[in-house]
Amino acid sequence: MNKTIFKEISLPRLNNLEPGLESTCLKLMEEAGELAQVIGKFRGLNGEKIEKNSEEIIEMICGELLDVAQVAVSMMFVLEDEYKIDINEKVNAHVNKLIRKGYIKVDNSIV
């Protein structure tokens, strides 16, 4: 039996910020770049000597990944607030697309 597993994460709306679509997108790209940079260092792709142990680097990767996730969630708030997008509806449509494309196998008795 194939079981669809969801990883759920709940991140807060950030205070004292008035992000727009463009500024949030730029911040998302910045954070994704920082994540890529840490992974590159972990794999020795930048030519530097690896000075941290694997555990320290994995912690750094987790931190950068959560920064990416936080900015992505912030962009969802922007879409909801400025453009009246129903994010739950969009998430459901996205999951259905993944099912149609075969990335998720679902037991038909559950669907």
From TrEMBL:
This is MazG-like family protein. Residues 22-100 form the NTP pyrophosphohydrolase MazG-like domain. It comes from the Bacteria. CDD domains: NTP-PPase_Af0060_like. It comes from Helicovermis profundi. It holds the Pfam family MazG.
